[in-house]
Design brief:
single chain; 766 residues; alpha+beta; Cysteine Rich Protein; Jelly Rolls; 11-stranded mixed beta sheet; 4-stranded antiparallel beta sheet; 20 helices; 15% strand; methyltransferase; chromatin regulator
């Protein structure tokens, strides 16, 4: 079990299975005891009734516009699983038997279960929240949920509508093209790059005739490893009090009533959260392993010819489809007439020559190799020393590096004329290259462009991009954080010379990323699908490296021996690289170039799930989650209307856990004789983290008496506060949200129908 001080805010309750657990979600699934109709759907019990109109399954339309003109979000830095999901309508008997076996294996965590369905009178189908419930002897009543095996699949590919926003509806479009749509494969330089080249017209033809985004036509685009979100509820006993039954569809008064008096025995480190079920962990390598000939897959690429192609709705779906770990959008700058010169070194110096630049001193090496400093053996560890300079000084270095390269090139040509045996000379040079000391280079990274006053022209130019790749849009989860996360919901610039490396990593909290090459040189990318991050984590451990925190450059030979596929491609000036959620990647500059990059969070169940999983994994690894997922989830509930049932249930479940935790902790603090002092929250105030363990602290802030009196507010979490002062004598407890306000947000966050979203979109347009 988890140590008590590592119990998670977003995990389940006591014996509950976490909604996003790595292992357990793959092996748990309830089988229904109710009757089934001719279509294989469960008939609801006679006394069951839907609570709210949340079960309608209307076809979705494609949201292509995420933002509103005039909305301004204030925006803080660079690098940080389970493939999801959905259950099919007709379940085979083999699946049912495997599910029963999964229940037996986890009998310590989940008691006897049966499914309780919620009837949809409009369509005659049954749906239910994806919720696991277990007995809690401390609760005055059992916590109860409903389940069904008949939820539609393909939730990773769903795109939710946001309101108010302008949307366009596209019929018969899906998230991605099947693999058969790959029409052309072209080799990259050095015969290492293979690319899927599609123009927008062919993409449209490929996608036509299939179901809409929130329909069921996306099953074929799912990963080969598919699991269902575990959905269970307890068998109702005669002693169960209906008013005390709690699920995500219960009102906030019932939730708080179920939590009443849990903290009357004093403070406890265990919170009310999960500490028994298996914690998230790196996934095993997908099975069966890929054949050797598929370890260099072609890179999905789309060529754009004009602005209309860039705003073509299925382009969004193609990029966010989990089947595509990376997408290269060729010619984006030309199609949108972006002025990339605004990000050139010359313009940057003229605009803000004293702006700070983080410099990484590195060794110049071949892109597909990483040697130790002596050049005697290949290693995974990659060393780079950090320093600071200004844009003006780095610009001088960048220019002098280019001039020096020209001079060396001329000398090399002169030497080649003096030797008759060019082949032997080349062989001798390549042999010396590995043994001789490597040349030192400097990489200008993490240049902050968040200040709208300093970089007004540059940031305004990026508003020409399609909504799904913009820095700020209503459909971007990171735009709802409410404060700046440097490099994630703000733009960062990179100034490079040949050989500049961004080591291997996943993005912070597994969010997607956008990278545009300003030029004039190229960049070479290496990409591994999210399914294989556990394999790379194992390699890091074998090489005494930390996957999340260390600097590493993978050995391609090791990856191929482990049957890990590696996408390899060249990014040219004007090309946009979309890195999908959870994708592992590393980059090396081929020439002299600048790049701009930021993160985005598509409104999909897959993105939210992977973000929460990484949030939990970071907690176990004592790594700070740059994205405050608890804070973000509450802001999503306030700001966004959700039409995807899977995404809605995951968010609602997290809100349920946090609401119960806040109520229980508040009562425990009061029972311990401490006053809860109202503190409130200012606009654009960042989320708070524990100053000791760096976990997110939501609502109830434990602040030392000294820092409170000095208004410095050094925040502790409950666990660290109790370790410092067992009776909290040296602490003041500050409250940022009224429980009534949280209850109102929780109750008003409901699933909306697709029809309602269409009406809202039409009204906004009109």
């Amino acid at each position: 079990g988890l140590p008590k001080d590592q119990s998670s805010h977003l995990a389940g309750l006591n014996d509950e299975q976490p909604l996003f657990s790595g292992d357990s979600t793959q092996c748990l699934q309830a089988s229904s005891t109710g009757d089934q109709n001719q279509n294989g759907l469960h008939k609801p019990p006679r006394n069951s009734a839907p609570q709210g109109d949340v079960c309608s399954h209307l076809s979705s339309h494609l949201a292509t516009s995420g933002g509103q003109e005039g909305i301004t979000f204030t925006k803080e830095s660079k690098p940080s699983g389970n493939r999801y999901l959905g259950s099919e309508t007709n379940r085979h008997a083999a699946t049912a038997s495997n599910s029963c076996a999964g229940i037996k294996r986890l009998s310590n965590h989940v008691h006897q279960v049966t499914s309780v369905t919620i009837s949809n009178h409009n369509h005659g189908v049954s749906t239910s929240p994806n919720l696991i419930i277990a007995d809690n002897p401390q609760l005055s009543a059992l916590i109860m949920g409903e389940t069904s095996d008949n939820m539609g699949g393909g939730t990773c590919d769903k795109v939710n509508n946001t309101s108010p926003s302008v949307h366009t509806k596209t019929h018969n479009s899906v998230a991605s093209s099947p693999s058969s749509a790959i029409s052309i494969a072209t080799p990259s330089p050095k015969s290492t790059e293979q690319t899927n080249i599609q123009n927008v017209a062919s993409l449209k033809n490929t996608l036509s005739g299939l179901h809409a985004i929130n329909g069921e036509g996306l099953e074929n685009s799912q990963s080969s490893t598919k699991i269902d979100l575990p959905v269970f509820s307890h068998k109702a006993s005669p002693q169960l009090i209906p008013s005390m039954s709690v699920c995500i569809y219960s009102g906030s008064p019932e939730v708080l009533k179920a939590c009443r008096n849990l903290g009357q025995n004093g403070l406890t480190n265990s919170h009310i959260l999960l500490d028994k079920c298996p914690p998230p962990r790196p996934p095993a390598s997908p099975y069966p392993p890929l054949p050797k000939e598929k370890l260099n897959p072609p890179t999905p690429s789309i060529y754009l010819e004009n602005k209309r192609d860039a705003f073509f709705p299925p382009l969004h779906q193609f990029c966010t489809n989990p089947k595509n770990p990376v997408t290269v959008i060729r010619g984006l700058a030309g199609a949108l007439k972006l002025d990339l010169g605004l990000f050139s070194t010359k313009t940057l110096v003229e605009a803000n020559n004293e702006h700070m630049v983080e410099v990484r001193t590195q060794l110049l090496q071949p892109a597909d190799e990483n040697w130790d400093p002596t050049g005697t053996k290949k290693i995974w560890r990659y060393e780079s020393n950090r320093s600071l300079t200004t844009i003006a000084k780095y610009a001088q270095y960048q220019a002098s590096s280019f001039q020096e390269s020209l001079r060396e090139e001329n000398e090399r040509k002169t030497q080649l004329k003096e030797y008759s045996d060019n082949e032997s000379t080349s062989s001798d040079n390549s042999g010396k290259k590995k043994k001789a000391p490597f040349k030192t280079i400097k990489f200008g990274t993490n240049i902050d462009l968040s200040d709208n006053k300093k970089w007004k022209l540059q940031l305004h130019e990026l508003t020409k991009l399609p909504a799904f790749v913009r820095v700020v849009s209503a459909g971007n989860l990171l735009s709802h954080v409410g404060h700046s996360i440097l490099g994630m919901n703000t733009v960062q610039l990179y100034m490079k010379v040949p050989g500049s490396r961004t080591p291997g990593h996943q993005e912070k909290n597994n969010f997607c990323s956008v990278n545009i090459n300003i030029g004039p040189g190229d960049c070479e990318w290496f990409v591994v699908p999210e399914d294989y991050w556990g394999v790379l984590n194992d390699f890091c451990e074998k090489n005494n490296l930390n996957f999340l925190m260390s600097s590493w450059w993978p050995n391609l030979e090791d990856l191929y021996e482990a049957n890990v596929p590696v996408y390899r491609f060249i990014q040219r000036p004007g090309d946009l690289v979309w890195i999908n959620a959870g994708t592992v990647h590393w980059v090396q500059a081929v020439g002299w170039c600048n790049n701009i990059a930021w993160n985005v969070g598509p409104l999909t169940a897959c993105q939210y799930k992977l973000a929460v999983e990484r949030y939990e994994w970071n907690r176990l690894q004592s790594v700070k989650s740059v994205v405050p997922m608890i804070h973000l989830s509450w802001n999503m509930a306030r700001n966004i209307k959700i039409s995807d049932p899977k995404l809605f249930e995951m968010i609602k479940y997290c809100l349920l856990k946090i609401l119960k935790h806040c109520q229980t902790l508040r009562e425990a603090v009061i029972a311990a004789g401490k006053d809860v002092i109202w503190h409130g929250r200012t606009n654009s105030e960042p989320a708070h983290y524990c100053s000791i363990c760096e976990v997110e602290v939501f609502n109830l802030l434990f602040v030392t008496n000294e820092s409170s009196s000095q208004k410095t507010y050094i925040v502790y979490c409950q666990d660290c506060a109790q370790k410092t002062s067992e009776n909290l004598e040296n602490f003041v407890v500050l409250e940022q949200y009224k429980m009534d306000d949280l209850m109102q947000v929780y109750d008003q966050f409901t699933l909306v129908s697709e029809f309602s979203m269409l009406v809202v979109s039409w009204v906004v347009k009109w």
